[in-house]
Specification:
Elements: H1 24-40, H2 45-51, H3 57-64, H4 82-95, H5 97-117, H6 120-132, E1 137-140, E2 156-160, E3 163-174, E4 181-188, E5 191-198, E6 204-208, E7 220-230, H7 243-277, E8 279-280, E9 283-284, H8 289-318, H9 323-348, H10 359-369, H11 376-388
Parallel strand pairs: 1-4
Antiparallel strand pairs: 2-3, 3-7, 4-5, 6-7, 8-9
Length: 394
Amino acid sequence: MADPLKPGKLDPLDFLEIDLLLTGEERLLRDTVRQFVADKITPDVGEWFDEGTFPRELIKEMGDLGLLGMHLEGYGCAGTSAVAYGLACTELEAGDSGVRSFVSVQGSLAMYPIWAFGSEEQKQRWLPGMAAGDLIGCFGLTEPDSGSDPGSMRTQARRDGDDWVLNGTKMWITNGSIADVAIVWATTDDGIRGFVVPTDVPGFTANKIDKKMSLRASVTSELVLSDVRLPHDAVLPGVTGLKGPLACLNEARFGILFGAVGAARACYEAALTYSLERTQFDKPIASFQLTQRKLVEMLIGVNNSMLLAMHIGRKRDEGTLSAEHVNYGKLTNVRTALEIAREARSVLGANGITLEYPVIRHMNNLESVFTYEGTNEIHTLVLGQAITGIPAFS
């Protein structure tokens, strides 16, 4: 019979021993990405956030680690399991949501549509370079007046002989002004289609969006397409309609539901460490009942969120996952992460608003994660339809 548990002997950083749910290969990958984050991101990310810059030198290093399009097969991609991809997202977002966003956009929003819906020529041209980090991609769906309702997009693609001509504007596009290729969704006479758009074609402009208070260590842009002329084979041949971009968003949301756990964990660990070191009334603030309540709530949120992410990841690897499960995971885990970040900020007091600690940065970033790739409200309505059979979107 095992020895009884002793108070204070459980690991506060892995309270439920979730490590035991991972294979040796999964732990090795997780630890490799965690070390990369510790070495290359954590020391400088506060400065990047403060300056509003994204370190492009990281892109090639992430490509060398096999993190770009890592869950895809072939064309230079690592072909990992869904859980392995999720664990990588957890560690990257523990560093910063902007870094995880880059990986999500590159792999799930730019590479995935080419991989899933593109021609063999498109795959061969773009995917190996994108997997290596030599080429950068972005995903053009959201517009100034079309966010949660992508079917109302105004960007159009019309036939002109054998060519396509695109006109329109896309907004809030991660990687837009540093991308080599954009996956742009537009309305056509045949319905919504996706186009592979090299960003050096005439008529394509990407304008960087500044003065953000969230995701500052990430490039966000407006894309303007003015009579952009593309050859006939620029269209993604494998999909027509909204199911194309929605499938891509589902890919990205999967990474987000894991990534949010990383941001939450970083906030909890910062609050725990700080509470043990900070003294008031001649004792550490961790000794006060109210502080312990906050720490316990954070602990429970992090562990429950990781268990949920692991369950969803295993279901995906088993082929039993539905899109609604992913909506459930992103809704719950991002909301929980934001609550944890706010609670951690209160533990750190005034120090919680400085970039010397990660909490305010994660808290600001999570405000964006709460909204992008599907708002909290849209996820709620998707789940409402799933359990009642009644759509409530309009």
